[in-house]
Amino acid sequence: MDHVNKVIDSKDKKEYDKYVSKVILEGRQAGIFIIFAMQRPDVDFLPGALRDQLGLRVALGSMSNDGYRMVFGSSNAKNLVLSDKTAGFYMDMKMDRPKEFYTPYLDIDFIQELEKLICYKKQVDLDKVQ
Q: Cα(62)–Cα(64) distance, rounded to whole angstroms?
């Protein structure tokens, strides 16, 4: 749901906020979850009170202090410094402070490696037939 504010007319923003609020606040009970992936999670897109109700918040890569504040709230965003370029921070509703996590760093040409895998699989399948 990135760039939604660019698509939604300002007169429809209140109605959009109402429906998103309902899904965030009541959807969990019905097994409905909403995923926001955005470059800048500011209050123009999602009001702070609603953002605080999100079950899990994740920030990938190095962000500014303002970026961390927008994701985790002002009291939780102090002194967040990544220890590695493959790291990020996450925080769920039960945590009082974000925790660092690490992701795999793939320094490869993904498409080229996928093509190699497909060729290998085809060869293995041919060998089985023979």
A: 7
Q: Are strands 56-60 and 87-92 parallel, antiparallel or unpaired?
A: antiparallel
Taking residue 103's Cβ as centre, other Cβ atoms within 10 Å add up to 12
Here the tokens at position 39 are 């470059």
Tell me whether residue 41 is exposed, middle or buried, using C-beta atoms within 10 angstroms of its C-beta: 0 to 12, 13 to 18, 19 or more: buried
pLDDT, tens digit (0-9, with 9 covering 90-100), for 61-99: 888 888 888 888 777 777 788 888 788 899 988 888 899
Cα 45–chain centre separation: 15
Residue 91 CB coordination number (10 Å):
20
Model-level pTM? 0.62
Chain centroid to CA 12: 25
